[in-house]
């Protein structure tokens, strides 16, 4: 119960931050008329009543935008080479940790290649999509490290993916509306917290693995049977000591993709993706902020909530289970399911807003659920494949990125993710430590917090010095 209380307090704190941005946006919109009326004699306002006007003037100016569209020419030079190297390692580490690598892609695209922050966010989503698709293809042939099931937990994905998609749509809209400094503040708070949590989870898992390896070594000395497989037992909640050899065989076993796909769950996930795609395409043919535009936006809610509710009710009644957790994956409580779905929405909002993979939140969340690191990474990446591809469609319809650049970096991320998965999987089997995935996850999130936070603070200082507009953008007047 104490752990549940802590999770709720963390979620409540993050939600308050998000709602503060939303309420500020609503306040700015409501005060637009007041601002226009008072703008001509703003300087003559008395100091008492002028504070509110100054705040509104800072957050909202009708017809004014702080967004500058910057797309560098695509040509072979030092920037492209350095960006390719950074993007390669970012995709390799990000795919292994199940976070996508967007926290490395965005600073690389901004600082090295030269894109503006919001265009970098859009291309980052393209790279995440390529890395996620490559990783999912690799994982579709693998089995769970301790149980007889695919390494991707389809029921867990079905619970969070529709809400992740809904969050993505909200996040993409926020990306247009929010100023860069607002994104920077949210990012630093969120990433420092999640990276710290993931690191301590990695330390805990490392200690458990060390105990298991010592026990395996003692049994080996007692029986005189020096089996290499006994060192790879592994994970919290793993099976009994009699199955180490089976674990070794299972971790190295590859099966056909057909055997590893749960078709019913995959069909529902594809249905959600197609429904969202159809709504986005239809919305693109309407006038922004018209009645039809908002109706099509709101139709995403029944699609996502309906599918997630079906899975959540099944999990609550026990007719379906999160099999990757073993015996602990059945009979989940209502407040747990609500918490997980809320975190999925938050992950989507953060992903769409910052150009990151939702795995930055889903990865630590799955680990807290007790899901093995390999399964956590694989399932988070699987869910991100749907959400990131939808983000790419939305950003493309908004004309937020140049297609040639996007295609090039998608190819880089795709190759890097495949290589990263293969190398780390070999290391886990050799060392018998799945906690490597958790440490890679924590490291990637922390580096992302430093790099994205640093870029955001630098841009914010530059805008302050130049007296640039730093308030909300007008979604209804957005023009790429």
UniProtKB/TrEMBL annotation:
Listed GO CC annotations: Cul4A-RING E3 ubiquitin ligase complex; membrane
BP GO terms, sorted: protein ubiquitination
Record carries keyword Transmembrane helix: yes
Span list, region Disordered: 217-249
Protein name: Dermorphin like
Species name: Actinidia chinensis var. chinensis (Chinese soft-hair kiwi)
Protein topology in the membrane: Multi-pass membrane protein
Superkingdom, taxonomy of origin: Eukaryota
Membrane-spanning residues: 80-110, 122-140, 164-192, 337-366, 378-398, 405-424, 436-457
Keyword annotations: Membrane, Signal, Transmembrane, Transmembrane helix
InterPro entries: TM_pro_TauE-like
Cleavable signal peptide: 1-24
Subcellular location: Membrane
Sequence similarity: Belongs to the 4-toluene sulfonate uptake permease (TSUP) (TC 2.A.102) family.
